[in-house]
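Possible regression after last week's pipeline update?

I re-ran a chain I had predicted before the update to compare outputs. Posting the input and the new output here so someone can diff against the archived version. Not blocking, just want to make sure nothing changed silently.
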Amino acid sequence: MTALEHWQHIYMTRPPADVGWYEPDPIVSRRLVSEAIARGARSVIDVGGGASFLVDQLLDQGLQRMAVLDIAAAGLELSKRRLGERGASVEWIVADVTTVEDVGRFEVWHDRAVFHFLTSEEDRQRYVALAGRTILPGGTLIVATFAPDGPERCSGLPVRRYDTDELGRAFGPAFRMGRSEDHLHVTPGGVRQSFVYVTLSRIGS
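New output (post-update):
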């Protein structure tokens, strides 16, 4: 089964509130993206956003451009139906971050729990290169992965866990490390999962 088939199947067979990554209020992501908006950012792309509720929160923050990207069209359809007419202002992008060449230019790139599924070095390099092409100089990259004491697998797939330094280094010289924080996510089934969030700045002028 390909990655596309896997995630399409997940979204088509499991209610959004039953998946392990479900957050009725994505509090850490919302806060970190809102801080970037408060600093002047006016465009955000939520990578792997699927059926996440983050887009609902951001639509009230006066953005000029909001996009949600996911490999699975089924995930985006769930968000579209939930938002109704409000979703008309969102760019819905069906794409695989390891193969797509261009998704436009944004000031903020947010990713909660996509990067840790990239277990091959080649896929990670493609992701980092896409982020570098996408984020405007001076822009912000927010990425969250499982921490070293987090799960080794998620949704039936292996993951790569990171500590703060490893996650910052993964994005190379094009990004400058900013802040980091740990977060304990509790799944709908009561499983505790350790995450690490890092915020990096795109170097350039």
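Follow-up from reviewer: compared with the archived run. The CA atoms of residues 12 and 111 lie 22 Å apart. Marking as no regression found.
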